[in-house]
């Protein structure tokens, strides 16, 4: 590679005889390692990665549609994409221009591109939904013509979202994805179980696990996706931006037999998919009583939940859920993992409200009452404009905001056991004795809002392998009801993955 060139190269002719491996590349004093590479047998589902939600300057973003698809296919190396422009800004000419670019870039077996748009109705009318079509029979039904001067097709508008449900009811070639953006989706008051098989719980806007919780609390059977909702024309590598875009965009992994529109669309409708944060291609496997991710089934007696996570970095823990309850939390650490460690994490997360004003300012400081701060580095602060602004021997200061996601600092201390950490932010102020963190168990302090919280923990002495398997039993699942079994993977660097649930009715 030479300076100024895109540093992406496709290597042809590589072969694996079986099993799993990682590829390592070295040069110029740098070393990079790939995520998991697997050789699959015929018939085994493959993992395809995509960003199914983003915009360009065609509406409220930057860059052209051509640049958007070219970047996603050739730089971010996505297997699938969808362009989701705000419907109230999409003219008929822009709609036809999008369709033409999709025809040019869509290539089955290389990069699948779906026709779609964002139904951008206000939350009292249902809230944001991505509309995605399986094929070319795609009709634009806007929530309004607010910024479209040509009113000749105004009669095709659909508001509230129940009118959109009516318009698409009976079609098996279209799906809607509720998500959180400028107008958050209300799926408690508005939901179609056939048209809405998945919900988007992470994007540039932040982390919204509460949307999945809303669905499960209401008894819906939905899967999980994550995308960027990026407005910078960089699908698959969408960095945080100004204003309320506080997170690095996510990706959706689809478990499909082949890279075709038909196969990928069918897999999403069947909930054979999961979402990850920060474009980290974390490999996740899940079976429940032998049923694959997203499936439905029935059982008698105990339930077995098995699988593994292979991360892009050391895995901190895997939380195994039944509905809203954590059945098990697995970690690679033992008490001996923390022997000799003088590293600590002080972090915070959450948002003020569900709506557009969710961004929460955490600009603050950490002061050590005794001893010295030897080192400090940001944790999960993905925006280069945020981070540590000042450090002395006893104090660290930072600029930070969250929109549901995590931020924090990792510090290395030379301090006596009776030292106290003085944590000061506009959201919450805490005084935590260092001794309370000695065992390595996290201390979590709720701070109101939408899952606003501070959390602190001692870090292990060394990094562990980026893989963790699980095989646990739910000995007494509730009889006569449908339970959703799913997992959340958390890496030491803060990256996360959520699986679509397996829905099991226990007799």
Give the SSE map.
Blueprint: E1 19-21, E2 24-27, E3 30-33, E4 37-39, E5 46-51, H1 65-74, E6 80-82, H2 92-105, E7 112-119, E8 129-133, H3 161-168, E9 174-178, E10 198-200, E11 202-203, E12 206-207, H4 209-217, E13 223-225, E14 251-256, H5 261-269, E15 273-276, E16 283-288, E17 291-292, E18 296-299, E19 303-310, E20 315-322, E21 325-330, E22 343-351, E23 360-361, E24 364-368, E25 372-379, E26 387-391, E27 395-399, E28 401-402, E29 406-414, E30 420-424, E31 429-433, E32 443-446, E33 450-458, E34 467-474, E35 482-491, E36 496-499, E37 502-506
Helix pairs in contact: 1-2
Average pLDDT reading: 95
The major β-sheet equals: 13 strands, mixed
General shape: globular
Derived from helix and strand composition plus strand pairing, the structural class reads mainly beta
Low-confidence runs: none
Helix content: under 10%
Alpha-carbon distance between the two ends = 61 Å
Number of helices: 5
How large a portion of the residues is in β-strands, by DSSP E? 35-45%
- Number-wise, the strands total 37
Task: Please tell me how large the radius of gyration is.
Answer: 23 Å
């Amino acid at each position: 590679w030479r300076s100024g060139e895109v540093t992406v190269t496709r290597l042809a002719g590589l072969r694996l005889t079986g099993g799993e491996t990682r590829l390592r590349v070295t040069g110029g004093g740098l070393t990079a390692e790939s995520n998991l590479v697997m050789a699959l047998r015929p018939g085994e589902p493959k993992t395809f990665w995509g960003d199914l939600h983003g915009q360009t300057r065609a509406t409220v973003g930057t860059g052209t549609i051509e640049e958007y698809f070219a970047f996603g296919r050739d730089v971010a190396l996505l297997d699938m994409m969808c362009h989701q422009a705000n419907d109230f800004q999409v003219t008929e000419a822009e709609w036809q221009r999008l369709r033409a670019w999709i025809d040019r870039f869509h290539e089955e077996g290389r990069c699948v591109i779906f026709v779609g748009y964002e139904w951008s109705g206000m939350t009292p009318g249902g809230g944001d939904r991505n509309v995605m079509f399986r094929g070319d029979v795609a009709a634009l039904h806007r929530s309004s013509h607010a910024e479209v001067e040509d009113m000749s097709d105004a009669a095709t508008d659909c508001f509230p979202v129940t009118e959109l449900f009516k318009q698409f009811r009976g079609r098996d070639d279209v799906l809607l994805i509720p998500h959180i953006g400028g107008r958050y989706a209300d799926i408690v008051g508005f939901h179609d179980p056939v048209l809405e098989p998945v919900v988007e719980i992470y994007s540039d806007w932040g982390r919204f696990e509460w949307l999945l919780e809303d669905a499960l609390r209401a008894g819906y059977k939905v899967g999980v996706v994550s995308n960027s909702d990026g407005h910078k024309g960089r699908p698959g590598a969408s960095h945080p931006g100004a204003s309320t875009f506080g997170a690095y965009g996510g990706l959706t992994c689809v478990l499909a037999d082949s890279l075709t529109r038909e196969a990928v669309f069918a897999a999403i409708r069947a909930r054979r998919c999961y979402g990850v944060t920060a474009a980290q291609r974390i490999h996740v496997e899940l079976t429940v009583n032998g049923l694959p991710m997203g499936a439905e089934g029935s059982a008698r007696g105990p339930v077995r939940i098995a699988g593994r996570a292979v991360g892009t970095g050391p895995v901190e823990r895997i939380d195994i859920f039944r509905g809203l309850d954590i059945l098990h939390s697995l970690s690679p650490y033992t008490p001996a993992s923390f022997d000799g460690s003088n590293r600590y994490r002080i972090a915070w997360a959450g948002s003020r409200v569900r709506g557009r004003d969710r961004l929460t300012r955490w600009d603050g400081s950490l002061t050590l009452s005794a001893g010295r701060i030897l080192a400090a580095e940001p944790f999960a602060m993905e925006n280069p404009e945020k981070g540590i602004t000042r450090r002395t021997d006893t104090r660290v200061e930072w600029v930070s905001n969250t929109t549901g996601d995590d931020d924090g600092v990792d510090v290395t201390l030379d301090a006596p056991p009776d030292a106290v950490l003085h944590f000061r932010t506009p959201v919450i102020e805490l005084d935590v004795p260092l001794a309370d963190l000695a065992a390595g168990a996290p201390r979590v302090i709720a701070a109101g809002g939408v899952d606003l919280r501070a959390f602190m923990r001692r870090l292990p002495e060394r990094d562990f392998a980026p893989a963790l398997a699980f095989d646990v039993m739910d000995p007494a699942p509730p009889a006569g009801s449908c339970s959703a079994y799913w997992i959340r993977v958390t890496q030491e660097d803060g990256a996360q993955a959520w699986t679509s649930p397996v829905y099991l009715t226990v007799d």
